[in-house]
Amino acid sequence: MSTKTKYIFVTGGVSSSLGKGIISASLGKLLQARGFNVTIQKLDPYINIDPGTLNPYEHGECFVTEDGAETDLDLGHYERFLNIHTSQANNITTGIIYKSVIEKERKGEYLGQTVQVIPHITDEIKYRIKLLAHKQNFDFVITEIGGTVGDIESLPYIEALRQMRWEMGDDCISIHLTLVPYLAAAGELKTKPTQHSVKTLQEAGVQPDIIVCRTEKHISEAIKNKIARFCNVKAKDVIESIDAKTIYDVPLLMLKEHLDLEVLRISNIPCKREPDIEKWKEFLFKLKHPKKSVTIGLIGKYTELKDAYKSIVESFIHAGTINECKVNVIRISAEKVNDTTVKELLKDVDAVLVAPGFGERGIEGKITSIKYVRENKIPFLGICLGMQCAVIEFARNVLNFENAHSTEINPKTKFPVIDIMENQKKISGMGGTMRLGAYPCNIVKNTKAFEIYNTQATTERHRHRFEFNNKYLEDFKKAGMIPSGINNKDNLVEIVELKNHPWFIGVQFHPEYKSTVVNSHPVFINFIRAAIKQKELKK
Ligand code: GLN
After folding, report:
1. Strand, helix or coil for residue 140
2. Ligand 1 binding residues, C-beta < 6 A
3. pTM for this structure?
C-alpha cells in the first residue's frame, strides 16, 4: 500500500441531502488545483450490490463508469468536478462488502473463526478504502460515507473510520457536514442540531477535525466559536457552507473558507502552490452571464424527480456555457404525449431530447414526439432508449413496417428493429446481461456525427441490453436514416442520423456520462448550437 496517501472522510449529520457529494467534490477540486493527485470514493450503506437495480424514484440516476460499474450519482459529480475517471472501486456498498466476506467464509479463508461485523466486515471496508489508494498512488483519497451518523446501517463504516484514525493518526482526517438551521420565528441560526450530531459521532469514537455547516444565512464568528467550544474543534475549522446559486460555486466558496488549507494543515502537508482554477472561474463567469437562451424539451418518464436525469441536466449546463447560452429544460412526461397533445406540449421548445429508460411506460409518447420533431425539422437528440424509439418511429412511419418495435417491449413484433444480440442472451444475473461501460465507436466520414466529433475514433459509455437490428440496415439506409457511428468489432450501430433533417441524432450510448466542467461533450455542444439556430429561425 502507498505510505503517503492521506485519507479524508466526509460524514453527514442532522439531515440527508446536505450536499456531502458536492462538498467532497469541491474539496477534491481544490486539492487537485493545488497540484495533488486526488480521487473520491462513495461508501453506500444499502444492501443492494449496486444501484443498477434501484428504481430512479429510490435513488436518482444510476451513473456508469468507464469500467462498466453501475454507481451512485455522486460519482457523476466527482467526475464532472475533477475531470477524472472513477471506477468500480470508487463505489462500495454494504452489499459488496457482505458478499465478499461471505464468499471468503465459504472458501474457508477465515480458518474456523466466528465471522463478525468487527473485525471482519470493518476489515473488508478498510481494505476497500486502501485498495483504491493503491491503484494509482493517490495523494488524497476522499471517502464520502453515505447516510447520516446515527443510522444503524452506517455504523460499520463509522467504526472503520474510527479504527483508521486510531491506526493512522494525521494520515486520516474526518470532516463532518451538518445543518445549522435558521428559525424564522426566533430570527436566529441554531447550533443545537450540530452539537447533537457531533455528539453522536463522538459516541462512536470519532472526533471530527473539521465541521462544515450548511446554512442559508451567513454564520457569524460568535456562532463559529460556539460550535467550536461545544464540539472540540478550532473556530477556524468550523466552515460555513452557505446555500449557493449553483453547485459549481461551491469550490470557490470552500476556497474562501480555507477548507483545503485546513485539510493540508491538519494532515501536515505543505501547500504546493496557489490553486489553478482559472478555467473553472471562466466557466462560472460564462455560466452566470449568458448572452442568449434556449428551451429544451426533455421527454422521459421520471419528470417529477429532480435527480433522475442528473447527468443530462448537468451536460446541458456545460454545453450551454460553452455556447454562452442559458439552457432552460422543460421536463415533459412521455405518458402525456399523444397525437392530440404533442403540438401543444412542444410549442415552446427549440429542441427535444428523448431520455434513456427501461420498460414500456411512456414508450408510445416518446415515439409520437419523435414523429413530430422529425416531420417539423426540430432538432432532436435521442439517448439509448431515445435512439431506439427514433429507429422504431422511422420503421413504422417511413418504412411502413407496421407495429415495428423493440423486442424489449413486444417480443412478438413482426419487425423487431431493435433486438437483443445473440451473445447477450446467454448471460444471466442482474447487470450481467447488459452492455456496460466504455466501448470504441467509429465515426463515419461525411456525416453529421463526424462534424460533431471531428475524429474517426472515439469511445463512449453504454448501459443497455438491446441493439439496432442489422437485418434491416439496408432498408433504413435507403430511406434516409444512416448509421454514422459503428462498433466495428461487434458490428453494432452506435449512432443513427437523418439525411434530410437539420439535426436529428440518436446515440445508443450515454454521452452525458462523459461531460465535465472543463470538457463539455461535443454531442451536447452541437445539440445546443442546433437549438440556438432553431430559435433564430422561429423569429
Ligand atoms: N431499455 C433499453 C435497453 O436495454 C435502453 C436502455 C437505456 O436507455 N439505458 O436496451
Report:
1. strand
2. 356-358, 384-385, 408, 463-466
3. 0.94
